[in-house]
Each structure stands twice: as C-alpha cells, then as structure tokens.
Amino acid sequence: MAETITVRGVGSVKTPPDYAVISLRLKGEDTDYAEAVNKANKKIDLLKKAIISVGFSDNDLKTLDFSARTVYKGVQKNNEYVNEFAGFSVDYQLKLAFDFTAKKLSETLTAIANSGSDAEFSVSFTVKEPEKIADELLISAAENALRKAEVLAKASRKTLGELISIDYNFRNIDTVSYSKYNLNSFDMVRSVSAVPEFNPEDIESQDSVTFVWKLV
Fold it and tell me: What sign results for the dihedral spanned by CA atoms 176, 182, 186, 191?
C-alpha cells in the first residue's frame, strides 16, 4: 500500500473594507394600527428624500424586516396593577449600502440626521464582492498545504507524489470589519464637520482545506 501524507492547509487573508452598510430602524406608534403604519411610512419618505439629496436613489434604501405588535401599559386599579391597551407599534428594519469613502459616509449620515426621521442606526464595514475573499482564501490554503507537505516530505526523506484527494467543507467566512461605528444619536452628526474621520480595520478571514498526497 502506497504511503500518503495528509495535510490541512489554512488560508488567511486581510482585506480593506470597501463597502459601508448603514442599518436603520424606524418606529411608528398610535392607538390606531393604520395610523401607526402611516407614521412609520412618513418617516421612510423623509429618509428617502434625504438620501436622494446626496446622490442615492430611493430604491437604494432596502427593507430587511417589518414587524407590528400591540402595546400595553401597566396601570394601577383597586390597588392592583393591570395591563391596559396602549396602542400599536410598527417597526421597520432598513439598510443602505454603498461604496465606502469617508466623505460619502459623512455626507450620508449628516443627510439622514437632518431628515427628521428620528431613525436609530449603526454602521458596519464589509466588502462589495465577498466571493473574491473566498477565492483568495482557497488559493492561500492550497499554497499553505503544499508548503507544509513539501517540508514534511523532505524531513522524511520522501518526495511528494500524485495528489490523491482534496477535502473542503464550505463554511461562512468573516467578511465584516471588527471596527465599530456607534453613536447614541444622529444629533451628533447633523453637520459634516461633526462626523468623525474613520478608517476601518482590515477584515481578517480564514478558511481551510485538507489535501492528501502520495509519498514516493
């Protein structure tokens, strides 16, 4: 039986973020459900006008989730607290994604802050084409495995022969920077000059592939 060597190659890639994602949350509340929805929709209209003013189209604002719930409040009656109907609350989760530059981010946040929409927000930094990271990781993993296999074969006074198999299990790859951009309120960025300069950390990604070679 032919001798073989099994090596796990680990690929590592650092990628500078080139894509910004602003996650937004809008609420509408009222004792009438239709009016609660209408209030939230008016806020979305304000958001769309704001982003259009800095070069986006209204279709760039994407809806990720919509939810509605009944709201109750505790009131005291006859020395006991009971829940009474207080109205309806609707919740929109939205996303605005674009090619990242510090200037574009500043302009966009300032426009949203001055829109009157009262949106809650967070910003994350990623890459526009994550499949490129996946490809680079596989190449890196293959090179890493080959280098290890050649060192081990040489140390064993053997030579690498035919590649017998490649084993790869797909998994989700990190494509988001660990850098955090958190502000308590849009009030902090109502002026472009008030938006902090931001250079997000590179995205660090890893993946692995297992190779089996014959030894000769």
Answer: negative
